[in-house]
Amino acid sequence: MEKNRQDRDESVRFVVQHYQKGMFEPSKGWKRLTASLPGSGRVRYLSFITRAAAAVVLLFVAGIGVWMMVNRPEQLFAQVDNTEFTLPDNSQIVMQRGAKLEYDRHFGKTERHVSMQGEIAFAVVRDETRPFIISTPTARIEVLGTEFTVNAGDNETRLSVTSGKVRFTPDDPVIPLLCTAGMTVHYSANTETINVSSPGSEMEINGKTRSLTFDNIGLKEIVMVLSHFYNVQIELPENESDLTFSSSFTGKSIVEIINIINFTLDTNIVIVEHGGQQ
């Protein structure tokens, strides 16, 4: 204990004897001390790496922000009925109140694809190299150039064709329907039901009950529907394609349906399997 006190007193006398004002600057001293410690170079290196990484992250985030701004989809919204817009390809649309339409910056350049909800009337400029494609929550509509109206909600889509041809494909069952002037299509996703009507004919397809109703429908269209509904290939003689047929089927197999049509109309429709006829 006595020895420790003597050492402390000796240290104090040494400092008092040799201290000069301004000789020792604490800030510089700490820098020198830190530099002399083991691993200090590594600390500076890691600090540099950390700052560089932070800068890269900031640049990346900024780049993402710029990319999102540049590629942000164009959104159109109708606050009142009969709101008119001209799309970049000069196609005209008339939107009813609450309708929404969206397209990206490539629209009209490399493709023509829009998504929508609500009721919108379209007058599409014809372009055979770039079909006009509309996506709704429950269906896909494809046209080259024509006039039609689409009314789309979360669970259903309605299509009315004024002129030209429109290909309407519901989500389930997936059956592409070629619709012409005067035809209307209503698809309900909840019931998986497609109703198609045109002057003098009607058709209903129900995916849940596996039922089909044809009222004065041409055989060419019936064969197309049956092919997709049952996922089989069917051959229809060309000279029989203009015949019409009316009937309803529920829970019938494709073989039964084809046999009924052939027996009723004296036709020669056949199912093709693995490169041969059944």
Structure description:
With 278 residues, this protein is of the alpha+beta class. Among the domains are: 93 residues, Jelly Rolls (Sandwich), CATH 2.60.120; 62 residues, no CATH class. It is built from 5 helices and 19 strands. It has a 16-stranded mixed β-sheet that branches. A 3-stranded antiparallel β-sheet has the order 16-18-19. The longest helix is centred in the first third of the chain and has 31 residues. The protein is elongated. It starts with a helix and ends with a strand. The mean pLDDT is 84.
What is the number of E strands? 19
Overall form: elongated
Q: C-alpha Rg, in Å? A: 38 Å
Distance between the termini: 112 Å
Q: Tell me about the largest β-sheet.
A: 16 strands, mixed
Structure described in brief:
The chain is an alpha+beta fold. The chain has five helices and 19 strands. Among the domains are: 73-165, Jelly Rolls (Sandwich); 217-278, no CATH class.
Name its key features:
278 residues; alpha+beta; Jelly Rolls; 16-stranded mixed sheet; 5 helices; 30% helix; elongated
